[in-house]
Specification:
Layout (H helix, E strand, L loop, with lengths): L15 H13 L4 E5 L4 E4 L1 H7 L3 H4 L17 H6 L6 H4 L2 E4 L7 E7 L8 E11 L5 E10 L1 H15 L9 H18 L3 E8 L2 H25 L7 E6 L2 E7 L3 H17 L14 E8 L7 H17 L5 E2 L7
Parallel strand pairs: 10-11
Antiparallel strand pairs: 1-2, 1-6, 3-4, 4-5, 5-6, 7-9, 7-10, 8-9
């Protein structure tokens, strides 16, 4: 039988004709496929796999270097985990994983891969199926790959549409509500403080009347950027509605929240956005701050109400300032 350049043959208890036909079928599959033997060495790397990874079969056949086709740093492929009997580790390496059949031996996962040779990340759906010998041991594992990058990016875009404000690119009200509930529960479990800032643009109607709606939109975008620039990695800034923004500050004391609020107030003032086309009267914000130590008897809505009350107090006291609950305005 003529040896094919893209495969390394194994001796199986079947006719050479059947063996060659099976390998030829595997080679011509339009689905990217590779096969590992019981020592995690590549014995088949088909043409579709070459096209997907940019790695030729002769580079990986007989080696255990196939991981380099998918990742920049060493880590096992799904087929490796199956061969090595490490399927319990799948959840550590893949966020999406499951089984294709009731027997549970056909595994499927999804993840982003670096794809070093082609130079761009791809989101791959992976299936791995073991092949057993007569004694019940695994003699090979077949791994098939599907490029789902376009579908994944479309899904991410849809999720962003559902959770992001179209004008400012900040989190929207829905995302704010969901995040506040989640952070409230986490603070309750960990017995940590949770702070909230309500930020409102002062006299925004006056700005809109002077600059038009497009000018008003640009003003909100500039302020959104100023607010977001003062955040830590775990903080959330959302467009709460109209010209009002909300900031969730996990594990932050009232004193810390007041410091953040003052930085935001100052940063917006430094933008020097003139309320009128001529003049030195600039756009400012008023901020209400509140902090809670969540308990089973309290709720996130109480935190929002307290911050709202503080915001109203800041407005009433003359705007362009911050206010804390039951304290003098700062």
């Amino acid at each position: 039988m003529t040896s094919h350049p893209n495969v390394q043959h194994l001796e199986y208890p079947q006719s050479e004709q059947q063996h060659g036909f099976a390998i030829k079928m595997m080679e011509l599959l339009v689905i990217p496929t590779f096969v590992l033997d019981g020592n995690c060495k590549v014995i088949i790397w088909n043409r579709a796999c070459e096209r997907l990874t940019g790695v030729s079969a002769y580079e990986v056949l007989g080696t255990s270097d196939h991981w380099r086709s998918f990742y920049s740093e060493a880590r096992p492929t799904l087929a490796d985990l199956v061969v090595q009997g490490r399927t319990a580790d799948i959840h550590k390496l893949y966020t999406q994983h499951g089984h294709r059949n009731d027997a549970g031996n056909n595994l499927c996962v999804e993840n982003w891969c670096d794809m070093p040779r082609v130079g761009r990340r791809r989101y791959l759906a992976v299936d791995a199926s073991p092949i057993y010998g007569g004694d019940g041991s695994i003699v090979a594992v077949v791994e098939t790959l599907r490029d789902m990058t376009d579908e994944k990016r479309a899904q991410i875009a849809l999720e962003q549409l559902a959770t992001r404000d179209g004008l400012t690119s900040l989190a929207n009200r829905r995302c704010f509500d969901d995040t506040l509930r989640a952070e409230w529960q986490r603070a309750l479990r960990q017995q940590q403080a949770l702070s909230l800032l309500m930020v409102d643009v002062d006299n925004f109607k006056e700005y809109n009347d002077a600059h038009g709606h497009l000018g008003g939109d640009e003003c909100l975008q500039r302020i959104a950027g100023a607010v977001a620039s003062e955040m830590r990695a775990n903080d959330l800034v959302a467009r709460y509605g109209g010209e009002e923004f909300a900031v969730i500050l996990p594990n932050q004391s009232l004193k810390g929240a007041a410091i953040v609020a003052e930085r935001i107030r100052s940063r917006v003032e430094q933008l020097q956005l003139p309320k009128r086309k001529q003049g030195r009267d600039y756009v400012t914000v008023s901020i209400g701050a509140a902090t809670a130590l969540p308990s089973p008897a309290s709720s996130p809505s109480q935190l929002v109400a307290t911050a709202d009350t503080a915001l109203y107090r800041a407005k009433h006291m003359g705007r362009n300032r911050i206010s804390l609950p039951d304290t003098d305005t700062i």
